[in-house]
Each structure stands twice: as structure tokens, then as C-alpha cells.
Design goal:
It contains ten helices and 16 strands. With 436 residues, it is an alpha/beta fold. Strands 4-3-2-1-11-12 form a six-stranded mixed beta sheet. A six-stranded mixed beta sheet has the order 5-6-7-8-10-9, with no helix packed on it. A four-stranded mixed beta sheet has the order 13-14-15-16, covered by helices on one side. The protein is globular and about 75 Å long. It starts with a strand and ends with a helix.
């Protein structure tokens, strides 16, 4: 029997960005939601360190929110302190006897420098049972045509590691990764419990099909990158983040998993530990249904009625202040759209200027009409509105015409496929960045 705890996507250092009041949880140290993530991370590290008969902890990536593809900033000092304190709690309570295994995600590496906050800000030599694997380790394994694995012979357990890698970005990467991934196929006659640990998703093409399928017959596959706790298939699980990061995630489960693997009996028992239920603040999407008959005063009355629920005698409390998103869904003319934006900007300023009255951390909004879609009070230009009805065909025609004009000799189909893939990935990145 092997007992494992799986956690992922801690995103230490994450701060809500849009529509947030400029208040601190700890003055000049950490913001409210940021501090809530630190506090919960330390509670989880304490709780898992006290689990009896625990053999391993695996963290499936994105320990920190910064740095990332879109940010070269290091993790803020409170994030580094929380991480170090969490490690100290875990290894002290377990007498440094339980391995803590980490694979790097898409957040947490200084791109271009190829080192992580584990190396730049943490004295890893203090933690002899901390095992972390980054993208550079993966590239070295591919170059040498060797598996990327971690063996524990005494327990007859082998981990196969898959740090985050956008292997489909370039054709040469994709071919090399396809060839190498066969090295991660467990050898069946060695009697090991074989566990894969990966950061990626089939949704954005960062999880190889052989990892997400049952082709390799791993005893268990621990996954990170998607923030909802869920079963992918058979014995493939995302443990999710510890708290929802944004409004897209509030209807998902967050937490961590305790996994018991009995290889002889071929039984995998999964216990889901919910952490999102520990969220102390209201995190709510509020629907408002405007119609052509509604005046601005009518809409403001509806909004005020909702905001009145968050009036408190004690005023702003960083631990419980609400995060609110208003969804305006209905028949919204262009004129009404601008009226709503102006009104919501004013209402938000009024709420945030009265911290002795409103216990509100964040107010954002989205306006949804049949033909238009605007979010918050930002520019309404959305690239999707300008994509043609049949983008693949139209893009191929465009490429063909340009090659004819330039008298270039390239494979039109291949160029069209690569171009459309780049556009679709860019749109996904834009949507992801806009929300977090």
C-alpha cells in the first residue's frame, strides 16, 4: 500500500488585479486575497504533515504565481516566506522522512534564465527530501534520450515526471517530445508502483495524449494546471488549486487529494479534501437583467439592493470582504451600455471610498447583449468579433494568395495549420490573462 497526498496550483503571491479596493491585509506586506492563500497553504502543509502512514507528497506545479510567461517579476517576499514556512512545517513534523516531489508548471520560472525561485530564493540544501523538476531537466532528458524519473527502491515506487512544456509550439519540439515520451513507459515486470506527475492540459495542448490516456497503464496519474478538483479518467486526477482564483472558478471544487494505492489488489482509493469551503469571504456572481424599459435609476436601485447586503457596522475586514461580479444580461443598447459602465464606475468608487461602511474587496462587471460583449470599464475591442465566419478556410486562402504574390514555395496546408494554431492559442492566452 502506498499513500500519497496530491496538491497543485498554490499560486503563492497571486493578487486580484481588476476592480479591487486598495486595502492591505497586513500593511505594506500583503493584499487580502493574497494573504488568504498564504494562510490556507500553511494550514494545508500542517494538516498533510500530520497524516498517518503518509509515504509521499506530490505538488503538480505552479507553486508561485510569479514569475510566468507574462511576468518576469519574482515572487513577492510574503510568498517566499510562506513557502519556506510551509516547507519547514512539513519537514519538521515529518522528521524529514517524507519526500516532497514537485514538477514545475507554467508559473514559477524566470523564462530566459532557466532557473526557478527554488534556486534563487530558497536554500534547497536545507531540505534533503525536497525533489523538484523544471523544464530544463525535461529538455536535458529529451536531449539525452533518457527517462525523467525518480526511484524509491525501498518502497518499490517510481515517479515519472512531466514538467510543463509547450511542446507543440514548434514542429521540431513536438517531434522530439513524441519520440522521447516513449521513455516514460513503465517497465511491467519490475513490480513497481508507477506514478506519473504532470502539469498540463489537453485543453491547451500542453498535456501529451499518452499521459492523458491509459496507454501507459500508470497506477496513478497526478495532474496540475486545471484549477478544478476532478477526475479526468480512470485513475487520472486534477487536485485543483486550494482556492478559486477568479470568478470562472467559483463553481469548481478546490482542495487536495489523499490517494491510497494497493498495487496487488489493483485498487486506488481517492479521498477528496475540500479547501474552498474554508473561504471566509463571499465570492459571488450577481445577475442583473436590464431591459429597454429600465431607466438608469431603476438599474441603480437594483444594484444598491444587492450592495446593501454587504454593509457592515465594522466596515472593511480584509479577511471577509466580498468579491463581487455583476453580470448584466439582457437587451442592452449601445447607449445603455455606456450608461451602465459610467454608473458602475461611480458606484464602485463610492463603495471603495466608504471603507467604514462597505465590506467589499472587489467589484467588477460584465455586460452581455445579443451582439455586444463588454467586461468592466475597459476597451470593448475583442479580437474574436473580427474573426471571419470560416477562419480556417479564409486563412488558407490568405496564405495561398500571399505565397503566390511573393512567388514563395512553401506547403500551404502546413503554414495554414500552424498559423491557425498560433491564433487560437493567442486567443486562449488572452482570455486566460483577462480573467486572472
Amino acid at each position: 500500500m502506498v499513500k500519497i497526498v496530491q496538491i497543485s496550483d498554490s499560486h503563492l503571491g497571486y493578487r486580484t488585479r481588476r476592480g479591487v479596493t486598495n486595502k492591505w491585509a497586513i500593511q505594506n506586506y500583503s493584499k487580502p486575497y493574497e494573504q488568504e492563500i498564504y494562510d490556507l497553504f500553511l494550514k494545508v502543509m500542517t494538516d498533510i504533515s500530520l497524516i498517518k502512514n503518509l509515504d509521499f507528497v506530490v505538488h503538480c506545479g505552479d507553486m508561485f504565481h510569479h514569475p510566468s510567461k507574462y511576468s518576469s517579476y519574482p515572487p513577492p517576499e510574503p510568498a517566499r516566506r510562506a513557502f519556506k514556512e510551509g516547507l519547514d512545517i512539513f519537514f519538521n513534523n515529518t522528521s524529514n522522512q517524507i519526500p516532497f516531489i514537485y514538477v514545475e508548471g507554467n508559473h514559477g520560472i524566470f523564462r530566459g534564465y532557466e532557473y526557478t525561485p527554488f534556486e534563487s530564493h530558497i536554500q534547497v540544501e536545507r531540505y534533503s527530501n525536497l525533489h523538484y523538476y523544471k523544464q530544463r531537466d525535461l529538455l536535458t532528458a529529451i536531449k539525452n534520450n533518457e527517462p525523467l524519473k525518480l526511484d524509491f527502491p525501498a518502497k518499490k515506487v517510481r515517479f515519472y515526471l512531466f514538467p510543463y512544456f509547450e511542446f507543440q509550439d514548434y514542429e521540431v519540439y513536438e517531434a522530439a517530445y513524441d519520440n522521447w515520451v516513449e521513455n516514460q513507459h513503465p517497465i511491467g515486470n519490475e513490480g513497481n508502483t508507477n506514478i506519473a506527475v504532470a502539469h498540463g492540459s489537453a485543453g491547451d495542448y500542453t498535456l501529451h495524449r499518452k499521459i492523458s490516456s491509459n496507454d501507459f497503464d500508470y497506477d496513478y496519474v497526478a495532474l496540475g494546471h486545471e484549477h478544478g478538483l476532478k477526475k479526468l479518467s480512470k485513475n487520472h486526477y486534477y487536485s485543483g488549486s486550494l482556492l478559486p482564483m477568479n470568478f470562472k472558478e467559483i463553481n469548481e471544487k478546490q482542495g487536495y487529494l489523499i490517494i491510497d494505492i494497493d498495487k496487488k489488489a489493483k485498487i486506488v482509493n481517492i479521498e477528496e479534501i475540500s479547501t474552498s469551503k474554508l473561504l471566509k469571504r463571499t465570492f459571488e456572481i450577481i445577475p442583473i437583467h436590464p431591459s429597454p424599459q429600465h431607466t438608469s435609476a431603476d438599474l441603480e436601485a437594483l444594484i444598491s439592493k444587492e450592495l446593501n447586503r454587504f454593509i457592515s457596522d465594522d466596515g472593511f475586514d480584509p479577511k471577509t470582504a466580498a468579491r463581487l461580479k455583476f453580470n448584466f444580461m439582457g437587451e442592452v443598447t449601445i447607449e445603455k451600455n455606456w450608461q451602465i459602465n459610467d454608473m458602475m464606475s461611480r458606484i464602485r468608487r463610492d463603495c471603495f471610498s466608504q471603507p467604514d461602511k462597505f465590506n467589499i474587496l472587489q467589484i467588477i462587471w460584465k455586460i452581455i447583449d445579443i451582439s455586444e460583449s463588454f467586461e468592466d470599464d475597459i476597451s470593448p475591442g475583442i479580437i474574436q468579433d473580427y474573426i471571419l465566419e470560416h477562419p480556417d478556410e479564409e486563412f488558407k486562402t490568405f496564405v495561398s494568395e500571399k505565397l503566390t504574390e511573393d512567388q514563395s514555395h512553401f506547403n500551404v496546408d502546413k503554414l495554414s495549420q500552424l498559423g491557425m494554431r498560433a491564433l487560437k492559442n493567442a486567443l486562449k492566452d488572452m482570455e486566460k490573462e483577462k480573467e486572472v
